Every structure is written in structure tokens, then in C-alpha cells.
Hints:
By secondary structure, this protein is an alpha/beta fold. The protein has helices at residues 2-5, 10-25, 34-46, 104-121, 141-147, 150-153, 207-225, 263-284, 303-317, 335-341, 372-386; strands spanning 51-55, 59-66, 71-77, 126-133, 158-169, 173-174, 178-181, 183-192, 196-197, 232-241, 247-248, 251-260, 287-296, 299-301, 322-323, 344-352. It is built from 11 helices and 16 strands. Helix 7 runs antiparallel to helix 8 (263-284). One zinc ion is lined by residues 102, 137, 360-361.
Amino acid sequence: MSFSQNLISKELTQQMQQWRRDIHAHPETAFEEVRTAKLVEETLLDMGLPVETGIAQTGLVATLKNGAGPTIGLRADMDALDIHELTGKPYASKYPGKMHACGHDGHTAMLLGAARYLTEHRPFKGTIHFIFQPAEENEGGARVMVEEGLFERFPCDAVFGLHNAPRMPLGHFGIRTGPMLSASDFFEIEITGTGAHAAYPQSGTDAIVAGAQLVLALQQIVSRNNDPLNPLVVSVTEFRGGDTWNVLPEKVVIRGTCRCFSEEVRHQTKKRFEEICTGIQSQSGATVQLNYIEGYPATVNEEKATQYAIRAAQQIAGKERVNTECPQRMGSEDFGFMQQACPGAYIVMGTSETGSEANVHNPYYDFNDNALGLGAAYWIELVKQFCPA
Ligand SMILES: [Zn+2]
Ligand SMILES: [Zn+2]
């Protein structure tokens, strides 16, 4: 592919592949990325960069200064998933039940590659913070880094994130201004009735019927309370209760997730959950206890930062290969926590060459090494645009 060859040497591409496969073979999950963080730290120290470790346990930041100019933050995630790898690749996971199935091994290697190039060539004026974060999957490592003072210790004029997309052709990018990925919240509802012989329902308080009514009532938040032009998903994913045919159980547990793009919808949804639970409680006589857990905020791309990301991607991939109206997705990312603290833009980069590669979070998924040069070139171009020499 011609887009990255100009910028990234064959030697650096091979180096990135070596890092990527090493990290791939040793996947570590949320806040346990000890070996990965050590590899990243030592590689950055070898480049001569100062490195601050132990931010959100295994997170780290390296800084490269080159004269006076703007400050840019570039973020890569380092964590793996609790999936048993089935790729059979020579560099497949050595740890049973753990796997780099989201390509964070590639993200880490690309940012390291960009750091090496930028350190050696310095085609910019300003400061770069290379942010390597733990625990993107489920645990919100980005939130912990922000809470531990990421942007107070390393103030950035803007922060940027990138994710590989195995459903998009290699050499293509997707981005949009405003909300791009949804917020994700979770709920657990415990319904406690009074157990009884199933033949004598009048002597108990039925948690199953109360639970069934609750599931249907929750569906009305989307269909009756929410503006259809503002997307919302309410999914009940778990309904547990009862052990046998002839007993009304005392307890039912319902779990699920809500996804949306706006904070207003998010708050309205939570409020409706509370109201519906109170309503079902008084109607059924069972006790309904709601635990509504706020997960990740929406990934919302700030306008100016997005323009920089678009220009950089267009420079690397060509204007026609950058979709600036990338469709919104109901999936989530913890990069939104960083964007709440600092203007930022998140871009997706296509990695597909056959159109039939396994998608992320699949045991057959593998990050496409042919995309390493492209990702690194994007970071480098972004720095050149944001911090012109
Ligand atoms: Zn993932
Ligand atoms: Zn991911």
C-alpha cells in the first residue's frame, strides 16, 4: 500500500509487527497489564523519552517536547479480553482464556511506532503526550486515569483516539463530529416477593409475574417516552428466578443495558427506570430494588479536534477514503471519559483486506499487521497538522 510507505520504513514496520505479536502472545486484562506496560515503558525509555508510570495502576504517559507549540495527547489502549483464542497463529495467546481480540495490541504497537518516528524525525513544534491506558474493556481505565489527574499532570489542547475496524476496508477511515459511539449503562433489578406453593398463589407475592410486567414496562421507555429521533436501546439480557415447577420463587433478578448518545436521554432513562420500579412495587406488593450503574459516556467528537483528525486521515488515505459522516454506533468506548475532560476526536481505521475477517471480540479475530504502518502514519500526520513545525 502506498499511503504509508513514504513515511514508515520497512524496518519500523517490522519493529511494530514484532511489538504487536509479542503483546498479542501475552494478553493481559483490566489493570493487570503489567508485562505490557513494562514492554511499553522500556521501549519508550529506549527512545530517550521520559515516562510516568503507575497512572491507573498500569497506565503510563511518555512526553516528547520539541520547542514551543500546542500540546497534543495521543491515546492507545493496552488491555485484552477474557476470550479463549482460536486463531492457531504462531504468536497466539500463551494465556488460556485471555486474548487480544479487540486489536489493542495493534493500537499499542502503532502508537509506539509513531513515538519512535516522531522522536527520530521531530517534524513538529510543541509537545506530545503518548498516553497508554489500561482497562478499556468494561472497567473504564480512561476514567481512572482522568480521576488520577491525567490532564492536570499532562495538560493537552486536544486528545485523540483510534480504533481498528475489521468491517471496513484497509486504507479507509471513519469519523464524525458530535456523538459517534453510545453511552452504556447497566442495570440490575432485584424483585423480592413471598414464596408460595404454586397451587396456592394467593398465599404468596409472585416475583415472576412482577418481573415479567417490569420487563415489558421497561420496553415502553423506548417506544413511549423517548424521542424517536434520539436513539435509545433498552435491552434486558438476563432474567433469573425459580428452581422448579410447583413453587413460586421468592426472588427474581433482572439485568441488562441501556445505550444512547445524549446525556439528556441518559438521565431521562434512569429516571423512568426508577419510576417504573416504584410503580411495579406498589402494584405487585413485591419489593423492587433497582441498581442503575452508569457505565461509559458517549464518545463525542469535538468539532475542531475532529477537523484535525479528518485532515490527517485525508492526507494519509486520500480524501475519498475518509468517511466524515461515519454512522453512529451503539457500541461504547471509554475514550468518552477523556473527551469529557479535554476536547478530543476518535477515529476508526479500516483493516479488512478480504471482507470476511473475524470481527473484534471473536476468538478468531487477529489485528491485521498490514494496517500498522497506516495507523502510525495517521498519528504522525496528526501531530504534523496539530503542531506544525
Ligand atoms: Zn473491545
Ligand atoms: Zn477495543
